[in-house]
Amino acid sequence: MVNEMNQLQGEAWVESSQKRAMDLALATTLVPLAAPLVLGAAGLIRSIDGVDPLYNAERFGQNEDLFTMYKLRTMPSVNGAETVSSGYDDPRASRLGKVLRKIRLDEVPQIYNIYRGEMTVVGPRPIATKEYERIMDSLDPMTQKEWRKARALCRPGMLDSFGVQAYRCGYDLDSQKRVETDIEYASAATLQGDIKIIVDSLGLFSTLFAKHDRNITPPKHEYKRGSAILAAAANGNGITVSAQQRQYWNSMFRFAKVMDGLVDEQGETDLTPYIDRAFRGEIFAGLELDLALQVKASISLLSDDHRERIRHAISLLPVFAAKKQAATTPKGLHAVCMEEALCFASLLELDDVGDDVGVAKFNKWVRYVAQAGESLDAAADLQADYTANAVQLKPSRINAMRLAGRGLNHALHVARLSNRQTNTAIMHAAWVCCTDH
Length: 437
What we know:
single chain, mainly alpha, two-stranded antiparallel sheet, 6 strands
């Protein structure tokens, strides 16, 4: 029996009675273990968040049939409408919802969908109609055909390999990688492959609550998380963000970090040669090959004016470092930090397209975010210098600097709330993102 199952692959495995039997066995085993946790979580959702704990929504299923998928509610509603999630670490989730997402407990009600034959334990994740249509529109005709066939063949799954890769590598949820992973699963699915995905998913639980040290370089997926947050902010202003734009933001986060390291750690005072090499896709100390190629690809798609804006902003990093060292007062240091924040923000702003109010709002929001982050960084630097007796500053002035940064943060919250489809959680996450990176 086991040998027979091991020989099944692709469509033969996906549609086999053996896979269905494994689904039912795993679901039946999980029910008594998870039921008390789900009931407890449902009670907490109702008492803490004050909402119906069970969330249901239509999703595309096998053969493109629509079915009702069930989950524990983790997202707030905006103006009475359900909020669409952008992943397990979506910053808009409620505080309790974030915990449920990290341990995947919000997905357990989908066992009911498995019993009904609408889902499977391992398979491409369920997809909403609008998300499916948006991704289809971004694909070439050949890939559209392959992805549609893959999605029609497979039952949606509680677990999938893209979910594992998305956490480890930071792929955006609507990226080309999701499409590739779905197509690959439909053509190469096996018993061993399903077991590996289950084991890998369980293995993530020990890392989901890990905290990264601020003093080390953030993992690559942290930068992609930053680009996803920017995309969420743009979407809140009615702007559709392409995969190319997200890739550009990701490469700029990493590229700026590398160039900043050349100034802070190696004392470089002229970054022009490094900028030229990066634009050509050439590597140097600190610039890995994958990032060099990303920068080259991203830069090649930009207008001449946009390329010069990036070149100018990066080349000013040594200037800002010198100005900070020369600053003799908190007010002077803060002024330099605000100037540097606007320069950094210029790397992330969208190109102006005439009278587009959404783009103008987004760019203004990015500038506020960068300024808030730099304000708090300046306050932290002053506090460290004062503690080490490196400078003679009154604690009251340091506290004033902290309050200035917090004030900008509150202003960001107000600006964020002015958009109908946004909330303070996304804005706060973006602020933290810019502060960290």
